[in-house]
Amino acid sequence: METSSAGDPGAPWSAIAETSAATPGAVVRRSNTALIVGLLRSRGPSTRAELVRASGLARPTVMAIVTALVQAGVVLESGTRRPADLPSPRGGRPGTLLSFNGAVATVVGAQLHRGGVTMRQVTADGRTVLESLVGTSATGVQEVGDVLAAEVERFADTANPPAAIGLSLPGLLDHGRVTLPGAGWYDEPLQDILQARTGIPVALMSPATAATAGERSAGVARDHDDVVLVHSARGIAAGVLAGGRLLRGSGGAFGELGHCPVGADATCRCGRRGCLETVAGEWAVRDRLAALGLTVSTAENLADLDRRADPRVDAVTADAARALGTATAWMVNLLNPSLVVLADTPLTRGAGRFRDVFAEAVLEHSVSTVGLDVVGGTEDAVLLGAVQAALELLPSPVRPELVLGR
Residue 232's domain spans which residues? Predict the structure, then answer.
């Protein structure tokens, strides 16, 4: 993920947002404040007394933190609750309930895909404010930047304009620069362009990395810290969560599973020979079917091909699924995950037979399958991951638990 630092000096919570101060006292205050906000996020409305007990902090410390949070609008006071150990009306004074104000900040998650961009504005606690699908024929990086910035500006007309953007897009992403040969982009500074146009921080992610983050934050991988995700669409890529940490690599080529050699003899679109994509990629499947004299429209995905009930088609798609599953087993044997996810993409959506053959190959070639599950992914995982990336650009204590930035 490519990111820029967050911070909105005009936001109501900016007074308590993290600063560059690294003194022991400042570090402890930030940690304690994050603890209190985290408790309110996870436990829901709580009284000051309950926060003292749950946090283990001294009462004056909790009182001071809560006062600052209420003044900043991060925490709201609403209603009362009598202490559980004093149920009688005479047994004690009711405590004021405190709750995290998710509307204190919003962010935008965006997914750039063939023909357009899907964008979702959410609050700091993940509630959707607006969502849009913008069709565009723009291909130049400046034009795409214009489209994205214009839509963010429209979202900024809401009561709480977005404070950060997370964007998923294909290509090689390297320190905020994008190379996407199919669009004629070579080392384009898209992150800088968007930040200059919108005035807010931007995170860039590949679809596979975004899908992995989305599955971990709100999808099928919520209870897993070690995950391999395979994203098969126009190309083949992988995302990895290891020990609860999303792996990203040192440059822009992380997760390029589709360009690992598998011993095939065909030439890949990248110019190399024998890449996984030559036997398991979307374009390779279409080429093989065309060689058999079968016509496949660009609108057909693997589920559509399954419904043809043609043994020749079934053999081609099964070969692709086995090759993809076998290559994924290499990653399983290297990383020992508890979960393998075949991402839900326009190509794989609804393709139960393909997913079953893929899973069989993964399990067949994995050294150990103890505690290993192979599942299909969540439909909007890429967009969920882009949202999570944007949320993590918010400063503490507004941002959620970190999934990407650990």
Answer: 224-377
